[in-house]
Amino acid sequence: MAKPGTDQARKGALRLLQGVRDGLSLSDQAGALKALPAVDQARAARLAAEVLRHRDRADAVLSTHVNRKPAPQIADVLRLATVEMLELGGAAYGVVDAAVSLTRGLGRRGQAATGMVNAVLRKVAQHQGWAELPPQRLPDWLRGPVVATWGEDAALAIEAAHQAGAPLDLTPKPGAAQVEGAEPLPTGSLRLRGPVQVSALPGFAEGDWWVQDAAAALPVRLLDPQPGERIADLCAAPGGKTLQLAAVGARVTAVDVSPTRLKRVAENLRRCRLAADLVAADVLDWRPDTPLDAILLDAPCSATGTIRRHPDLPFLRDGSGLADLTGLQARLIDHALTLLPPGGRLVYAVCSLLPDEGEAQIAAALARHPRLTVEAPGLPGIEPGWITPEGGLRLRPDYWPDRGGMDGFFMARLRRPADG
Ligand SMILES: C[S@@+](CC[C@H](N)C(=O)[O-])C[C@H]1O[C@@H](n2cnc3c(N)ncnc32)[C@H](O)[C@@H]1O
Description:
The chain is α/β, with parallel strands linked by helices. Helices cover 40% and strands 12% of the residues. The strands form two sheets. Strands 5, 6, 7, 8, 9, 10, 11 and 12 form an eight-stranded mixed sheet that branches. S-adenosylmethionine is lined by residues 235-241, 255-258, 261, 282-284, 298, 300, 351. It comes from Paracoccus marinaquae.
């Protein structure tokens, strides 16, 4: 949970929220607050994320006290103060005073609104029943397919998981020391709760682990890489899966279209003292110089499985562009299959909640390539209900509710026939 803000952090959070209204993601704005001390930058980012996670609830409370819809900047001040008081436990007197002074700083319109902001927030401070309000609703373009596939109760559970946010998961290098205070998860990841400064954790400088959601660590476990195998990691950046492959001793070629994002793969490999060949190329144009044993294809997707950690995503996307993405995913699968030797295996993965990007892609790939088989996952920590009728693995944010959830993911292991 984020701590109630300082004035600097509150101003920073409002700037980030304005950026999201202008179409920028919170990650795009990572450098926007660099004039602030690091601690306030981190607080501002957490406050902005909390406002986005609780925006519907804040608006529901505010709507009972506000007569006319306020201007967007003033609405953000009201939401921030509401979330600080009702979600983060901020003391009303400090939060309301800060909100009034932030409003005063918003020009003539702000100066005229200070009385309203003060009066409304004093009433909000008395609000009872915050915890019972329904969680932030998924946008319709995403909620529709989720309800159609898993039902209304699943959509509500996913929304509750998004609102709760995500713990910090680490993937340890094989044989690395345990991280103090981290909970070992049944699938092999380590989990830490509460705000954590990653670079201050033991083992960071030594590269004993890397940050990777427990669900995101499973495609490589499903691929089951062996020491010495030649493996292509297609769409590799920022490289969490490249690190996993290299850490077991596979000979990895990591391909990504973005040279900038590949630099992050190089940095991650360096810190973890691991090696891989890095290739900046469009996967659709790439062929390996030497035959491969296996392929990991972590395809570009809607990233709708990562909303716990990216609560800005529902405010930035409208579902347009999905047809382009699913078309690209199908072309990437078909091209990757041409790179596999007979008998070779390919894991297809997407961090998406949309069946069109997961289950339906595999069904369509099997229809296009009837001799392909799907190998059902037999991994430690996997529950039978997570395996789909196609033999893929569907992961959802509402799974492991008592442990703190996981990202939404779909993955499947495909095998080319040995005779062609
Ligand atoms: C889901 S992310 C990959 C995450 C990564 N596998 C990891 O575990 O850290 C998708 C990546 O696909 C890359 N990408 C998108 N289209 C591509 C293409 N046609 N060829 C190569 N890379 C592509 C993007 O630059 C992005 O880095």
